[in-house]
Design goal:
The protein is mostly helical. The chain has a domain of 72 residues: Serine Threonine Protein Phosphatase 5, Tetratricopeptide repeat, CATH 1.25.40. It is elongated.
């Protein structure tokens, strides 16, 4: 029969008892972050609540509570938590940019700029705020303004994948295929979840420029980045159909092992006929 706390639990309890309230608050915040990383927002929220009680004037527990509420799909509770965080420290960009995101989602475009200005001044959130400002400008139909916001990101982060993707979309919309290809090529240099997609879209730009060989290399690079993604293999198969039977056959073989949408299945069937 076990009696009382285990040794490890006793050591932890004694250690916590020796901490100041501020140190205990940081411990609770770290425990909440741990739960959040495990996609357990309901487990994170009590830790953030205790942290806010231990250090009442600290903005961070309220911000992370908002983040947990967002993860749980509770947008109104998230909004209130972000507001409280900003009330406690109006200079913090993190809760401000989170408020701006929620306002943009709700279509409240005029109201977005109030929290967004705070996020633009805070160096820790400046890049995220610039990207968001461009999205707001697009929603308002101000494409030239959006371009300027996103170009500001590239001043300090020349290979930023998100700014590169956004700017490339504007260039493609206006038929500037060379500029779009350049932006997508730079954006795909860094380590990004969008690399395979950017390389595939870049191949389409290169085809518009009549550069089929370079487009083929782009698609091969895209496949190396994401070998189990159907769109890049379908694009390569379409490109080499009639010019490289061996490479076409390899793409068809690989595609037959993937889970395809009905549209992709129709494309694959057309390739084999």
């Amino acid at each position: 029969m076990r009696i009382g706390l285990g040794l490890l639990g006793l050591v932890m309890l004694l250690g916590l008892a020796c901490l100041t309230p501020a140190q205990q608050a940081r411990y609770e915040l770290a425990q909440g972050d741990r739960e959040l990383k495990l996609n357990r927002p309901d487990g994170a929220l009590p830790h953030y609540h205790r942290a806010s009680q231990l250090q009442p004037g600290w903005w961070a527990p309220h911000f992370w509570s908002g983040y947990a509420h967002l993860q749980a799909g509770q947008r109104q509770a998230a909004w209130e938590a972000f507001l409280e965080a900003s009330k406690l420290d109006p200079r913090q960009g993190a809760p401000a940019v989170s408020q701006a995101n929620l306002l943009l989602e709700a279509g409240q475009l005029a109201a977005v700029w109030t929290p967004l200005r705070v996020a633009l001044v805070d160096r820790k959130t400046q890049k995220e705020a610039l990207l968001l400002a461009g999205r707001v400008a697009v929603a308002q139909g101000r494409l030239s303004a959006a371009r300027r916001w996103w170009q500001l990101v590239l001043v300090t982060s020349p290979y930023d994948p998100t700014a590169s993707r956004y700017l490339a979309a504007l260039e493609m919309q206006q038929g500037h295929w060379a500029r779009a290809a350049d932006l997508l090529g730079r954006g795909a240099i860094g380590d990004s979840a969008f690399n395979a997609e950017m390389l595939m879209v870049r191949s389409q730009c290169l085809l518009k420029l009549g550069q089929a060989a370079q487009a083929r290399e782009c698609l091969l690079d895209s496949i190396r980045q994401a070998p189990h993604w159907a769109p890049n293999r379908l694009a390569l198969a379409q490109l080499v159909r009639g010019s490289d039977p061996q490479l076409l056959s390899e793409q068809i073989r690989q595609l037959s092992t993937l889970q395809l949408s009905p549209e992709q299945q129709a494309e694959l069937k057309a390739l084999t006929q």
